[in-house]
Specification:
single chain, mainly beta, Jelly Rolls, three-stranded antiparallel beta sheet
Length: 127
Amino acid sequence: MKIAKQKGDRLLFRKEATTKRKSSLSPFCMKLSSGEKYTRLFSKKDGSAISLRSGCVVLMPGENVGEHSTEAEEELLIILEGKGKLSLGKTAELDIEKDSAVYIPPRTLHDVKNTGKEGLKYVFVTA
């Protein structure tokens, strides 16, 4: 596939993906920003995705994202750098670290906290 043009951090391609669902979306690649606390990657809200939402989060030592639920959506966390804890409500905690993937079921209260000495960087995807 050849690059048609670069628009900001997105690389847009000439040829559209073939899917069963009709879509005006074209494949593109987005560079993960370094240093930003939150970077939206793909979202149905801005038209860059059909049904998923994703972003890149960077937490400094001691920071957390705050307890939340993705309601009816599943969530996937891909840990790129650092280490931390994933709190699942008040009942359980999971250690998370670089090169890990974490699945969070729908309607699960959770929070991510950086317990390391360096930044914790991860990508989340909900759908």
